[in-house]
Structure formats: C-alpha cells, structure tokens
Design a protein that fits this description.
about 900 residues, alpha+beta, five-stranded antiparallel β-sheet, 35 strands
C-alpha cells in the first residue's frame, strides 16, 4: 500500500499533535532556520493506497493534484465502482477529512462518500465540479469526524459512484487534526497543497467538456481491487523495464536551458554522388525501421544507401506520434535501446535526473504511455545514428519510380527527386522496402494486397467487413494469466452476426498527429480557419478533443481527427495524388482545432480549455509547426512466404503461448487493433471494422519468412510485412518495426557475408545471432533481454524452438525429469535439422501439466536455466558477434 504521511511542528500545536507527528522536514527547518517546501500535513493517502472494486481507470489526462495520476469511474460505463481507503489512525481525536480530486465540468456533483468513524458510519456527498482548493488554498472538507485507534471497527473512507451524475474521481484523501486544519484555513500554517500541485508532473489535460477519448489512460497493470497483485505486477514491470521509474520524482531544473542544438546531423548526398553507384544494401524509406536497418547493416560492414522521400528521417516518431506505442517496457533490440538511451539522456541533461520530464520519457510499462519523445528530439537522435556511420550514404527527397527485376532478383532501382522529373539509377545486392506504403515491392511486382481479407480466407473470426461495438471494460484474461505487459482498458464489444464478413479494399483511418503544447511562451494558436473549412463537419463529430496523453515539456499530441474512408485511394496513388489526400487530412485537423477553440456551439468555458493548446513554435519550424508526414496506419501489405494471421497472434490454448516460429526475428506485444475502416454503421452497431482485440491477443513471434517475398529473393520488407489486415494491428507499431528493421539489417549483412540472397540465408543462424545481440525473439514474463547473460540468450533462442509452452521461463526452478527428456531429445533433433518446434511445445505442455512422481527431483537435479545453457553451448559454433 502506498501511504504518504506528512507532519510539521507549529509551536503551540506540538502538545496537541504529540512528538510522534514531527517530520524530518520540520526538524531540518528548525535546525537550519531555512524554509522547506510545504507539503500536505496529517495522513495523506494517494489513489494507489485504496482498495478498488469495479473497473476504475487510472488516468493522467489531467494534472493530478497528488502523485503521478488519479482514478475515475469512466462515468459508470463499466458499472458500480467503489474505492476504500483505510488510514492508520494512531492518535484519537477529531480530524478534518478531505477528498482530493481533479475538477472539470463533467465531474459528478453528488459523489457519495461513506466514513467509518469512532461515532459510527457517516455519509456525505462531494461536488467534484467545484475547485478543489478554497480561497485560502486549502482543499474543501467533507467534514470533521472523530477517530479512535481503539475503536472496534477500523477507520475507513469509501467513495462510490452510486447515484453519480458525472465522472467520479479519486486522487487522494487527507485526514488532518482539526486544530492544524483550523490554522491552515486562518492562514497561520501552509496547507502544502499549492506546492504539491505545482510540483506534480506536468501532464496534458483533456478538454473540460470533452469525455475521455483515445487510449490516454486506459491501461493498467491489470490488478484493480487486489493490492498485493498490483504490487507484484508493478515490481515485475520495474524488473523488466529498460528504464525503471525512480521512486521519487525530483524537481525540474530551473531555469531550463534552451534546446538550440542542431537536429539534422546527417548530411544528404547529392544525386550526382549516388548516380550509377553500387551498394551492398539499398534501403528505401527513412522510417525508424529503415534507419535502424541501414545503421545495423553498416555496422556489420555493408555499404548502405538510405533513401527518404522528404528531407526528414525517423518516420512517425519525428512526425507527431511522440509516444512509443507498446505494452511491454523492456529492451527489445540493440539499436532501439541505444536510441532510447540517447533520447532519455537529453531529458536528464535539460530537465534534470528524475525530473517529471525524465520520468515521463523513461521506457517502462510501469506507466502508460510506455515512453515519449518530442519530435525534434527524436529526429535529432535518428540523425545521430546515421551521421555516425561512414558506411551509410543518405539521400533525401527521392522516391522509387522503377525497378529493374530480372527473374527473382532486383538489379537496380530508379529514384526520382521529389517534385521534379530528375531521375537517377543505383544498383544493389540486397534491397529493403522500409516505406509505410510498400512502394518498392509494388514496383517490383511482388504479390501484395490492400484492404481486408474475407473471414473465411484464413478462418479469422474478425476478418472482413464487420459491424461492431467497443467495450470499455478491462480485459480480464491478461491479468488472470499474469502477463507482464500493460493491460489496456478496452476490449472488443459485440459483433453483428449478420455482417457480410467479406473482403474489400478498405483500410483503417489515417490522421495527422499534431504535436501540441500548453506552454504559452511556445504556443501558436490559429488566427483563421484553414482552407475549405466547413463547420458542419465538426458539429456532430464525436472525437472532439485536442490533447490526449501527457508528454514531456508541456507537450502532448492530437489523435482525434480521423477520416474513415477518405484514405482508401492513398496506397496506390501517385505522390501528387497523395498530397491532395494529405492536405485534406491536415486541413480537417486544423479545422477541428479552430472549431473547438472558436465555435459558439462549444461552451465558453470549454473553449477556454481548448485554447490552452496550440502548435509548438519549436517543432517543425520550417513547415508551419505541422508534421512533415501524415499518419499512414495501413497501406499495402506484402503477401510473402508466411502470411502472419490472427492465429499467429492468439494463444494456442488458455495460458499458453502463441504459435512458435523457429525463424522468429521479433515479437508483438500490442494487441490486434484497427481504427474504423469506413463511416458505415448499423442500428445497434457503431463502427465498421474497429478492433480492440485485447482479450484475444498475446505476445507473438514474427517469423523471418514474413519479411520475405514469394518471388524476389534479394528483397526484405520490415514494415509492410506479410500479414492479414486483422493481424496487422499488432505489427504496425514503431517499437515492433524497430525490431524488424534491425533484424533485416542483420539479415542483409549475413547475405553479404555468405554470398547468398536474403531469402537463401540460414535462418537458424540469423535467429541465433539475433539472440546473441540482445534482440527480443521470444517473450517471457520473467526473462529480460540481456546480451551479456548467456542464460538469457539461451532462453531467447530456445523459446523460438518450442522448448517452452507458456510465457514463464522459470530459469531458477529445478527441471522436471519429463521435461528434461523432451529437451534432450529435441536438442538432438535440432542439431540434425529435424525438430518440429510447435510439436515440441505441445509435448512440453502435456508433460508440464502432469504432477511429478514422488521423489523424482534428486538433490543433484539441475535448474532449467543451467540445462538451457548447457544445450546452448553444445550447439555447433557459428561466427561470433
């Protein structure tokens, strides 16, 4: 339980409060004569200290008044909710009791509070639309009540949403001796609440009149109502984290130094320097995946050309996405870790170690989003990776227009300078399509598709055109199975059984992900509506918000202005045609901001709230403070050697793993999802094709075959991988693409070293190399990727070979004899090239489900980790990395 107790000595109050209530801060203040920052006094319990019943949502959409977050009941959408605090009252007496909350005008005006006191049970109601602090800077009181530690029934305070007329919010509760409370209200003693609020982490706030939208705070560790389980889940998340949260958040540096360091550190070659050249690897697409692919191949000795259609590399993370969409906060790929460390170091140096900004960007699923980065900071660090590699030639403002394919081999690609007819041609040994659109493989005429498969094509229950609803309740199975990932607080709702479930060309909606700020000194507000503005488009638009999640440096991002259906022509369009679609989405987003900040249909108070947010002056300075790229969530998808379907991302049995792939090169951790594909609906079913398959999805292995074409041997596709529309939702995340991109870089280097095409290299050697380098190829709840730990490396590799039937490696447990026999036999088959990984996983599941015979574990039995290490060391040697 998280219990915060603050005490301060105030002269005449010492006899009343007793010496046990003296704080360290007060003692230091008395000893040094210096003022200390005032903190709330008495007994203060943060929201994490409560026991919860019902589907409460942990939120950071608005600045919490105490601690990093608060809870709300989602306006009773998930039913009755109850939060109970049990303060440890040590001294009998009268206490003023305060319920702390984040007020907005969608809160409940009659939040019910029940207290167990020394005088019996008392009830009260709280209007949570009123400002929390009164004119004296003290929280409004529920009342004064008598408590006695000797009472037969322990003291308690319970908040419920019974009869509520808005969102019920719990941030903290305070029990303060009445004499001290009186001095606070008379101004004779500081309450500490103004300082607490000012010291709270700066987070984005939702519009006062807008209900929660998007996925801002709709995640948890999946253990609401069970404090012990919550503590265990938090500890597991911290243990797995790339950068665990500091126990205490430190103050921000003051003053904050300006960030005037250059961003575009990597210099572009001229077309003349590239024309006619021959490269080991040609990477088309300067997305994050493309960048790490190029850098990894270069570090492995390849001469690489990296081509980007505009002047900025890094993909969506440099174009307003800002948050790393993931549910697992552990390390997953070497270059991704390097990039994240560099980004984090920026926030340490500029804002201070453990400052709110530093805490926000730490990569860990102890919080959500898992991590952040301002667009210009992320772009700088992608540039830093490229600039450091002499083997990488960067060519900006070029895109492919023609491919010379001879049979199963691409010989060259012709590139056009953006906005001109100027063309150059380059030759290469391995070609990588790292674009969001799949432009290179389309020119190479390999099989691909755009749109949705029919339900019966791959037997996917959620495929095809389907009318659905979304259930805003937390998935129960994720926490029940003890998965060490963040639990998203929505799931798939009802599906219209009469939906056609047919194939079509529809793809999920796009939008502009504007970066926004609430810093008045850095904020640009629109002074006029954009071209083509039509207010009628916005009057009934149901995603009326600007800022969503809480980012660093008073920034957030905008995810609301989607236009389902208006992007369907984009994947196959020319760049000139795409620009028209891009402009439409850009102006629609700008129009939504204008509407929310200026239209009279929005209340004045709400407009004031929306006007807190504007475009940042320090982002996209050469592009009107608007991102250089639109968020292309889905375009073409290659049809490759293995089509990754929803079955690959679903556990083969409850509590078990997803299907095992011996050539796994990366993992998924996000659930299969999709934004709406059209604006169609049916009575009782709100969406066409919206998916949030959190109950169905589990961490999955992505096979190398999904990056390979059926027809072209020297082509790798780490972004628009071979997958169905449904399964695409679990792949389409930047952290996943950082993995697939680096894996493609390793594969291209292996192809060069062995003189083979990418499709012909030894995938078993590739997987072993990835495991040795610290690439996450098998997800475990209890194993953190670590290239320096031989046993962790062994677990990663053997996880791809079927040695585990679930997500628990249990490396320190004694190996059961039945499992040992299976592992030994499997190792021999593996060496002989005859192992069936999926069949082995099924056999292990059966063996592990049976009780061990009495006395089967001898005193000399080895641990699972020790045996794995022995098997790993017995494998034939390969090139050291």
């Amino acid at each position: 339980m998280k219990l915060k107790m603050h005490r301060r000595r105030f002269g005449a109050l010492a006899p009343v409060l007793g010496s046990s209530l003296l704080s360290v801060a007060a003692c230091l203040s008395a000893a040094t004569g210096k003022e200390t920052t005032a903190q709330p006094q008495g007994i203060v319990l943060d929201d994490d200290a409560a026991t919860y019943q019902g589907a409460w949502v942990r939120s950071t959409k608005q600045t919490a008044v105490y601690g990093p977050a608060y809870r709300h009941d989602n306006h009773q959408k998930e039913g009755p909710c109850q939060a109970t605090f049990t303060p440890q009252i040590t001294e009998a007496g009268e206490y003023e009791v305060r319920l702390c909350y984040v007020p907005t005008n969608n809160r409940s005006t009659r939040t019910k509070v029940t207290l167990v006191t020394a005088d019996g049970t008392k009830e009260a109601t709280v209007d949570q639309r009123l400002p929390l602090l009164d004119k004296s800077g003290v929280p409004r009181a529920i009342g004064v009540f008598r408590f006695d530690p000797k009472s037969a029934t322990p003291a308690a305070l319970t908040v419920t949403n019974d009869g509520a007329d808005g969102f019920v919010v719990v941030d903290a509760v305070q029990f303060i001796p009445v004499a001290l409370a009186k001095q606070e209200r008379e101004g004779k003693a500081p309450s500490g609440w103004k300082d607490a609020i000012l010291a709270a982490p700066q987070v984005a706030s939702e519009a006062p009149s807008a209900p929660p939208t998007g996925n801002a705070s709709r995640t948890s560790l999946g253990t609401a109502g069970d404090p012990a389980a919550a503590a265990a889940a938090k500890a597991a998340a911290a243990k797995a984290a790339l950068s665990p949260l500091a126990e205490k958040t430190a103050p921000r540096k003051s003053p904050v130094a300006p960030d005037d360091a250059p961003v575009r550190l990597a210099t572009s070659a001229t077309p003349a320097q590239v024309q006619g050249a021959n490269y080991d690897v040609i990477v088309i697409g300067g997305t994050g995946s493309g960048v790490v692919c190029a850098v990894r191949a270069a570090r492995e000795g390849c001469r690489v050309l990296l081509v980007q259609h505009n002047d900025h590399i890094g993909g969506m993370m440099t174009n307003g996405l800002m948050q790393w969409d993931a549910l697992y906060g552990g390390p997953r790929a070497p270059l991704f870790t390097e990039l994240l460390r560099n980004i984090e170091q920026h926030y340490v140096e500029r804002f201070g170690k453990d400052s709110p900004d530093h805490q926000t960007v730490r990569y860990t699923h102890e919080h959500y989003p898992i991590s952040w980065g301002e667009p210009h900071v992320v772009e700088r660090e992608f540039n830093r990776l490229v600039a450091a590699e002499k083997n990488v030639t960067l060519l900006l403002s070029h895109y492919p227009v023609q491919v010379d394919r001879q049979g199963g081999t691409i010989r060259s690609v012709t590139l056009c300078r953006y906005g001109t007819q100027e063309k150059i041609t380059v030759q290469g040994a391995t070609f990588v399509d790292a674009t969001y659109e799949g432009d290179l493989f389309a020119l190479a005429k390999v099989p691909y598709r755009v749109g949705r498969e029919a339900r019966d094509e791959y037997n996917e229950p959620h495929a095809g055109k389907a009318f659905v609803n979304i259930d805003h309740g937390s998935p129960t199975t994720v926490s029940q199975e003890g998965l060490n990932i963040r639990n998203y607080s929505s799931r798939q709702g009802t599906v219209d059984p009469t939906s056609p479930f047919t194939a079509d060309g529809a793809i999920q909606a796009y939008n502009y992900r504007f970066c926004v700020t609430k810093d008045p000194a850095n904020r640009v507000l629109p002074t006029a509506p954009p071209p083509g503005y039509n207010r009628e488009e916005y009057v009934k638009f149901d995603r009326k918000s600007i800022a969503t999640n809480a980012g660093p440096n008073l920034k957030s991002h905008m995810n609301s202005p989607i236009l389902p259906g208006e992007n369907h022509a984009y994947p196959e369009a020319t760049w000139a045609e795409r620009e028209k679609i891009i402009d439409r989405h850009k102006n629609f987003a700008l129009g939504l901001i204008w509407f929310l900040q200026n239209d009279e249909s929005i209340s004045e108070k709400a407009r004031e709230g929306f006007r807190q947010w504007g475009l940042p002056k320090d982002e996209f300075q050469d592009h009107g403070h608007i991102p250089y790229e639109m968020y292309v969530r889905e375009a073409r998808r290659m049809v490759g050697l293995h089509v990754f379907t929803s079955h690959d991302n679903t556990a083969v049995a409850p509590g078990a793993r997803t299907p095992v792939h011996a050539d796994s090169i990366a993992i998924t951790d996000w659930y299969m999802d999709s934004h709406s594909c059209t604006k169609d609906s049916r009575p009782g079913y709100k969406y066409d094709g919206k998916l949030i398959l959190t109950e169905e999805s589990r961490p999955a292995q992505i096979p190398y075959r999904s990056l390979l074409s059926k027809e072209v041997d020297n082509l790798l596709v780490p972004v628009c991988v071979s997958s169905t529309h449904v399964a695409w939702g679990a792949i389409r995340l930047e952290p996943v693409w950082m993995q697939t991109g680096e894996a493609a870089g390793f594969a291209a280097a292996q192809a060069r070293r062995t003189g083979k095409a990418a499709a012909a290299i030894d995938s078993e050697e590739l997987v072993r190399s990835l495991a040795q380098q610290g690439q996450l190829v098998s997800f475990f709840n209890d194993v953190k990727v670590d290239a320096k730990s031989p046993v962790a490396v062994a677990a990663q590799y053997f996880g791809t070979q079927g040695f585990f039937h679930d997500y628990q490696a249990r490396l320190d447990d004694v190996l059961r004899p039945e499992t040992a026999a299976l592992w030994d036999d499997a190792t021999q088959k593996l060496k002989a090239g005859k192992l069936d990984a999926q069949k082995l996983a099924q056999s292990v599941a059966i063996a592990e489900s049976k009780p061990s015979p009495a006395g089967s574990h001898s005193s000399t039995a080895k641990t699972r980790g020790a045996v794995l290490l022995e098997m790993w060391q017995s494998l034939p040697a390969q090139r050291a990395h």
